[in-house]
Structures
1.
Amino acid sequence: MSDTTQPSGMASMDHTDMDNTENGSMREQEGVVRVSPATVQNIGVRTAEVPVEPLRRTIRTTGQFKMDERGMRTVSLKVGGWVETLHADYEGAIVKKGEPLLELYSPELVATQEEYLLALRNARRMEGSSDAKRLVEATRRRLDHWDLTESQIEEIEARGEPKRTVTFHAPTSGEVMHKNVTEGQRIEPGRALMDIADISTVWLIADVNQQDLPWIEEGMPVRIRLVSDPGETQEGQVDHIYHMLDTETRTAKVRITLPGGHRTLRKPGAYATVYLEARPTEATPVVPSEAVVSNGEREVVIQALGDGRFRPRPVMTGLETGGRVQILDGLSGGEQIVTSAQFLIDSEARLEGAMSMMMGDM
């Protein structure tokens, strides 16, 4: 890389000839601008060689822990009645799958148990009767549809009489949330009584800026630092990228699934700092971002040809990070390009081109 001192003033650009023309004047070859050494010194032109290498990026953002929605279960009954005993009687209670949640007195359940026992007795008396067997199957199916377990139905058969209350059990393990029932309350079929959240896993939802989305992919590694545990770093990976973009913040959400647990610091509502480790790009020519001149329609870099000669090179840029940008087309690597004062050289090149066109029309 070459360097110059800070300019004390701006000198004019000098354009010397390279090719003879018909009228004997000399003109620099097309697209090339010659700048005198004094001007190069004064405007502080710096150059650097274009390397070919991959880009690497770590994106830092903030995430919030949430319940794993896939582990949420709403508890509701398919039969109405009165809650005589509520075992899961407060929010935050930890239950295991199969544990009792509540005991229900239901006139419908009592009547159906009586029908089932009567059908069993008739089937025994009328051994071999297909109608009696169908009646037993129909009443047993009704009990099954109301979520009585196989062991509960067998217990009714063994007792020979209906149970006044029936116990309903937790459909999954987890933490009781949004409890909407109390002991002694009459409930209707289908009413949401409580939610049970599986706390064995949690989601960490992080916001990623729109310009960083090209770096994000499912499966990419993640480092996490908890606000409540600043000395520890945990690891995970992105398992889902949400499709919708927030129109106000211009961010998209990514999801990281992590182990949970009742005593873990990864609690829903807590915040964490998230570091997304993007996979290195393929090796391409890479230039400093400030070396690219753009007017909204075209992008160019200024190539230094030596002996004070410079030429604008149209390029196509790619991903950008850390003040460096990929060049997807226009450079092959190894070229010397201008990294400072390129706007002045580019303006001079445009002016020279316009003047050449005007002179050619005269």
Note: The longest helix spans residues 342-361.
2.
Amino acid sequence: MTAHDRRITPARPDLAAASLRGIVTAPRYVEGSERRVIETAVPLRPDPDFSASIDTELLFGESFTVYDEMEGWAWGQADRDGYVGWLSANALAAPRPATHSIGVLRSFIYPVPSIKAPVMLALSHGSLLSVVASEGQFLRLEDWGFVFAAHARPVDSKEDDPVAVAERFLGVPYLWGGKSSLGLDCSALVQTARHACGLACPRDSDMQEGELPGERLDPAGPLAQLRRGDLLFWKGHVAMVRDETTMIHATGHTMTVTVEGLADGIARIAAAGSPLRSIIRPD
């Protein structure tokens, strides 16, 4: 990726982040202000227009640095993966330090510490929480509401198998640009799985293919060379090797996160005009 990729560079013809002074030419440089997402998942778009395509999503609790606001829109950069774009300013609030994250597929915020209370908001895997106290089986959040404690984990705790994380999403619908357990795309599944294990990962499949460190395997080599966790890349698509015969991916073929045979899947995608392009065994 180049330094001026619009997806990860907070610069426009009229302004740029102050951190880019001397790197990007702009008539105005802005320091930016940190905010926090307060919706289940908010779309990040390339333009301030609800009809614009969705590049990605930010989940509840994620940090977002705002460099510009206009007519209910905020333009800035996501802290978690550096993605730049526009989102609804109403989805943002003052920042809070994250202490926990949601470790199950989905959970809820309740107004009181009771499972019988009406739900205030749904939370997706990877949502960030600011917890201030423990009350019985619940955790009390700094701003408002309670989360079932067993569904959360300290932010510094890490899982050890990205594929096992991805397997929790089996059956979740495919959604272009989606990043939540209500719907996500192929690269979001890989990113989510790696983030849960404390591993850095860019957002889009071409970024992952070009930037993730690891051993590069011969895509024309035998399938026997593959191991659990290897990443398979096609043009615009990525899958994770699950075992010696299967892979897991979010695919428009079934419109779900699914397990597919390695040989069958590679042949099917190649027959559609996209041969396997590269294989990475991530560090």
Note: The first strand starts at residue 16 and ends at 17.
3.
Amino acid sequence: MEKKIWLSPPHMGGTEMTYIQQAFETNWIAPIGANVAAFEKQIEEFIGFGHVAALSSGTAALHLALIMLGVGKGDVVICQSLTFAASANPIIYQGGIPIFVDSEPVTWNICPDALEHAIRHCFNKGKRPKAIIIVHLYGMPARMDEILALCNRYDIPLIEDAAEALGSEYNGQKAGSFGAFGIFSFNGNKIITTSGGGALWSADRKLIEKTKFLAAQARDPAPYYEHSATGYNYGLSNICAGIGRGQMQVLETRIAQRRAIYDFYQKALQNLPGLSFQNEFAECFSNRWLTALSIDFQQSEISPQMLIAELESRNIESRHLWKPMHLQPVFKDALYFGGTVAEQLFQTGICLPSGSSLLPGDLERVRGAISNLFT
């Protein structure tokens, strides 16, 4: 059997071991050290402004963002429905009440019209939402102008879940740098990885300083262990940060590789009936973390399940789009605003292998398997 083609495997840049070795040589292994500070600085410089806390995961970053915004028991947080569960779970950690919102069909991200309906519902019930969480799905920036206008109009803080969108841009500004907070993930399947890790961005230095304090168990500056606030063990290890330092050096290359993979699929499959891709609109620049498409069964007589099975039979990994949060059993009682865009995308969508290490022969294998099913 031919080698396995994975959806998005990690891809090392070549210099990671240098920084890992430095961590061992200096005996800085814990979540503190030169690699952590340097990695945070690299991210700050890449985004272009603001401040960063390197953390153990993107989920930890989102959890701390909600804590910093004062989300507590009974508070409402509006969240995009078409996303991974990690975008919504931290709301529950804080005892908050999630309200989910549909997507719009161009970017597949949160629908501004449905978002405003959700906001008005909350105000009519006497509940000002404590935060809005939007997601840049598969690296595609959301409609930030309209979203920011709503946040400003109703005075609601914005959290950008840019876990999948490091390097994506909207009108030339980096995704994750528009709201009160932006979160990033460096999980093993992301465009760059620290094995496991994440980061929280804010334009406010004091908020990031407090974030780092809480992430390190909220230890007060005292000659003994004293704590006046609840803390968390959310720091990123100096070893993982060393991996991140090496990965940041190849981030621009990884973005170019992912975009080239999308271009290959788009050109190679454009004449197959019923296929449509997640396309950029004028203001967007996507890092193309994953190439995602939807299949119209009426035109193609092919379903995502059929395509996934065909690819798997050829040792090629692919996946359905995220199942919307409002359809998840764990959130069955949550309110939802919008139509059926997110649900239809889940039913018709598929993510293709998009790893930066894919070779031309790998891409040709994927193209051949898809074309074979359509003929």
Note: The chain is about 40% helix and 15% strand.
4.
Amino acid sequence: MKYFLLTLGCQMNMSDSERVASVLEAAGCTRVEKEEDANIIGILACSVRQKAIDKVYSKISKWNRWKNKKSLITFISGCILPADKEKFLKLFDIVFGMPELPQLPKMLGEYGITNPLSLSVVPETDSEEIKMFWNVKPKYNSKFEAFIPIQNGCNKFCTYCAVPYTRGREISRSSEEILSEVKRLAQEGYKTITLLGQNVNSYGLDKKGDEILFPELLEKVGQIGEEVDSEFWVYFTSPHPMDMTTDIFHIMAKYDCLGKQIHFPIQSGDEKVLIKMNRKHSLERYRESMTELRRILPQATVFTDIIVGFTDETEEQFENTRKAMHEFKYNMAYIAMYSPRPGAASYRWEDTVPLEEKKKRFALLSDDLSENTYAYNKSQVGKTLKVLVREKDRKAGYLSGHTEGKLVIRFESDNQNLIGQIINLKITNAAKFSLEGELV
């Protein structure tokens, strides 16, 4: 049997898709690059974004029409709200939560697909279910970049967010398993490893003393970096300002393998909006963390997430977010125009900011961001930086990659053997969201 897998959404879904691929191939299936060539088509959905859900409906409509001409089984998993799941049950052959992944071969077996894993062990509890999922060795999409989930779910219940309803409450993975996976990947020559969770820095809190907490986990990862005779960078995403502590910054500064980049979501620069979002942290708390980060790790780049046009956001409140953008001088910001998601608390509220106003605020904030990024990028010209070469660039005769701070950079070279290697580049030119360099 041939399978095709479409992944939508965040890095967590990307990581999950690697485990889906591993299970399917262990069951005797072969991956294809074109959906037209597949007998099994799966999609990892994202109920957090309406555009992603719209794409699901478009795809399944097309795939179901194909069933008139050929034998085809469809399945869907990922981050799915209960309301969306109910609708998908009528459209897809198989709908399952990601912790149920080890049971997928058995589900396929019920559709007549004989495979060696169809008689899987059925877990007794949700906790056991997610542990079985984590025990699935992923089929990595890259030979030099890997994701490692360290927790699943979220306890924060931000009013705009559907994740607690799609992935459930926080469950931390065994630190022994995480560290074993980090060490194995480092020994195999992987160059970047990203620790994933909805709130990575609340890792271990659900275990109430039976597991180490995030700073100690990060310390042990750093120690692996000192033991392994290979250069690599470890990142984590995303931390929550409520759980951020300065010892995390000190540990990042202590170990070379801990990449000097941090994704630190602010969402809004206005106190009242943060309260309405139920972010559980104040702007002052966020500012204190940023001040400590800049003091302890002055070389670190900082990325963030911001929502514009949240329910009842006034012009003055938006201007406070613009002030925060200039104050914290982010190297990248993922800006989203607010859209209500069924299941999230804010869905009950009227979406009071018109779309045109959201677009205007999005454009203004994007301009503010580019002003900051361009100033920072220009300051890098003349420096020699370490760069992970990732792929051929769109510009002919060039390769591209990212710095340790995850800044995008291109350089002239036809040597594709450099892809997957960490090299030194001298920065020769800067643009708003990228750099250009030359081999040293």
Note: The CA atoms of residues 304 and 376 lie 16 Å apart.
